């Protein structure tokens, strides 16, 4: 079996990405730079490697950014179409809305912010073997409480959908990749926002549809929060997370050839340094995601943090578990810790934010 050329892929990329603000105020989440490429490019390369050529991007928020970058997809061996919602229709509405662009009888749907090594051909094979209406990729995680938990019976048939419960009955969670037959997709209501997780899946269970799970414990991460974005990016750089785009490029750090690195700077933990960025002498970057054009001055430390486009981090400043919005200017010796988020363009004076009392 495996994937037929006629299978369509739909990638949901219309969300506002509020949990990753302020970075998502200038770029949609799937276009944020991740290990040297927009995140979505890693996913599209995986779809292409699995043998699917026709991809529909279901867009809404900042829709134009996707088309400007990927065009008709021919540059990456794909045939990409765009279907845009003027008003966001939610994850279910976004799937329903692409119906007129579908060419095949079943469609693989992807959340545009999931990093995984799942075997797409095997998910589709399960769908065909089980004669399912919908098949979900389910992944086993150590702490399922923050996700949608999806129990299955001995035959793999889904028995319930439980969104974010404190006492999940199984460690299998909804991994954000589904196969829909066209008939199942047509059951999704039109003309209003619909959540696939909260409305479509529960109603398919109650109407007796055949909903199956394909379970694995491959690499999986939802990149929706700063912590996960930083971890996922570092895992890509270090070769822990799979991507067809990065074969042979893995290591402790990924530095764009146009970036400048000062003497004695230490770049470890899956750090990424973008185009034209400048890292000062003796700076220490551990699991840092440094976007294009940022400048990190001498002796500064950046750990597990995202540094936006054109940011300046002053000498001996410390950023740990932070998000620095585009164009912000962090003065010398400032300390930004534990989830601090600096909004785009904000300037902090030298020594202006401290967690310690040293001068
Ligand atoms: P948060 O605001 O941080 O929750 O992020 P989000 O808006 O991306 O929402 P979420 O992570 O739940 O979305 C999962 C996937 O669905 C992402 O790839 C989103 O881009 C996509 N998505 C969310 N809402 C919509 C929508 O209304 N329309 C479309 N087409 N896609 C959506």
From TrEMBL:
Superkingdom, taxonomy of origin: Bacteria
GO function terms (MF aspect): nucleotidyltransferase activity
Record-linked CDD domains: NTP_transferase
InterPro entries: GMPPB_C, Mannose-1P_guanyltransferase, NTP_transferase_dom, Nucleotide-diphossugar_trans
Entry keyword set: Nucleotidyltransferase, Transferase
Mannose-1-phosphate guanyltransferase C-terminal domain ranges (all copies): 251-344
Name of one Pfam family that matches: NTP_transferase
Residue span(s) of domain Nucleotidyl transferase: 9-236
Family note: Belongs to the transferase hexapeptide repeat family.
Name of this protein: Mannose-1-phosphate guanylyltransferase
Organism of provenance: Rhodococcus rhodnii LMG 5362
